[in-house]
Amino acid sequence: MGRLANNKLQTESIIKLLEKMNINLAGQTITCHDEWISVQSTSREQANSLISDLTTILLDDPSLGLTRKKVTISSLITKLITSATYCNQTIRDACLALLPILEKNWQYQYDPETKHLNIELGSCFLPIFEALQSEEINIIDSKFSIDISALLKTNEDKTLDVLLIEESNPLILIRHELFANKKIFYAQKTLKNGNIEVQPFFHLPPDVTPPDYHFILDTSSSMYCHMKEFKESVIRFAEALFEYQPNAKISLQFFNTIVGDTKIFTYGELEDLKKVVNSFYAYGSTALYKTVNKQLEQLAKLSLHNNYLLFTDGDNNDDDNNEEGQIDLLSKHMERLGQDPRLLSCNKFFIINYKVRKNEYLADVVNLFSSEYISSNEVDLQKALQDAEQLSVWASKRGLFTYSVQVVEGQFSEYSLKADYANQFVPLEKLEFAAHEKLDIELTIKDVEGRIILSDKRCLNNPSPVVKHASNSNILFPNSEARQLKQIYSDPDLEYNRTIQNQKF
Questions:
Q1: Which DSSP state fits 403?
Q2: 250-277 burial by CB neighbour count: b if 16+ within 10 A, else e?
Q3: Contact 203, 184 (CB under 8 A)
Q4: Burial bucket for residue 152 (CB in 10 Å: 0-12, 13-18, 19+)
């Protein structure tokens, strides 16, 4: 089942957001998985402090509090033991008597995917607990496994905001929707010069419409020694892609002496895709540059949001003997594409290379689209093939966004940035104010089609926001001859195109 949200990017963005919001995360481990954020704290005091801080930034009126529940592992196990009705009372009493001994030294692990708490029982206790008979009790690999899914609901069967597993190293589960519903946060800090720095973070939800995926496969003779690894990696990429985005379509095209026909596969046709990939064998010459040129020519004519994955050893051995001409044509395609920021931002072009040597011309194509050149000999690819989250990062849809910031009686600025639709929080340009200035900000964010996805107006001296979310709006930016684009490098974590026009309003 596709998750649409990318847990890896989601986790990274939540950590950065909380750090920028001056939330103390020292020693705590944060993981996002689908609709829940899990935090492993080092002490009860730290966990309670974090919940208090989160209440402050998530609620306009913190006095209202979050819907929360607090339990201990001991209380959960006790309830399961007493409800084990298929065994006699002696076994239940024995397990209850052993529980305080276990509790002194137990260690637990939380699995965010299954939402299970797993507690190691130890070989001497295992036979007694295995005698418990209940559908709700799971003992797997010497571990007592507790499904806490039911705890994430209130008595009225509404979703809980916060669940606290109160142990010496507490576990906190926080509903991610609390953050998403805020839509935007403003992180503030005082600079050494006394000025106030403000950095907005806006929520970019997952996009239900996937990009178009294009797998371009080198099946020439030079790939003979790599065919086993080649087939395995193509299939693994396809599996991870469909897991992440089940509505996706993959176009498959091979090339060697010729460029083959394109075949399109959907989620339900994954087994057919595997059969086609496994049927490939290496033969013929390598029309590599000719193939890449055709793909770039096609990309310029397609709608936005295409993710290309070219699987090759990077050797060009074309029968035409016109390598220099193909390289020159490649440069011309790249020059034309480089003049359109929409194409560069909303498309990705990856190379999966089966030789140690990197092809510099292909590397230039990858860099043009801010993508990755992945060597099959690198440990990173081998790890990624086992890590659906990393593959999902590469598979995610990327968009180009423009936004304008207007400060009352101050500076008007316009920016653009690219970011993945991944249910993540995206940092925007930092703003700086004198300490005595009134912090009135108007922020408008639009997607590549000019639709307003967020409009926000607020006085940061007064935390009450006025947020409008209008993803279906077709309002476009007004024309302004005074706006020009120039590249500015202002934040090491971000890429911006920035225009600034100082005006008094």
A1: E
A2: bebbbbbbeeeeeeebebebbeebbebb
A3: yes
A4: middle
How far apart are the C-alpha atoms of 447 and 436, rounded to whole Å? 34
435: which residues sit within 8 A by CB, 6+ positions away?
A: 190, 194, 195, 196
Mean pLDDT, residues 160-165: 93
Residue 445 CB-density burial (10 A; 0-12 exposed, 13-18 middle, 19+ buried)? buried
3-class DSSP state of 3: coil
Q: What per-residue confidence (pLDDT) applies to 483?
A: 29
Pair type for strands 373-375 and 347-353:
parallel
Do residues 432 and 195 make contact, with C-beta atoms less than 8 angstroms apart?
Answer: yes
196-204/431-433 β-pairing: antiparallel
Measured distance CA(364)–CA(369) in Å, rounded: 9
Instruction: Count Cα atoms within 13 angstroms, Cβ side, for 505.
Output: 11
In a 10 Å sphere around its CB, with 0-12 CB exposed, 13-18 middle and 19+ buried, how is residue 13 labelled? buried
The single residue listed with the structure tokens 């947020």 is 467
Model pLDDT for residues 179-201, shown as the tens digit of each residue:
999 999 999 999 999 999 999 99
Angle, alpha carbons 424-203-496 (nearest 5°) = 85
CA distances from 505 to 408, 480, 483, 501 (A): 7, 16, 17, 12
The one-letter amino acid at 351: I
pTM for this prediction:
0.83
In degrees and rounded to multiples of 5, residue 46 shows phi and psi of -65, -40
- Contact, 279 vs 271, CB < 8 A? no
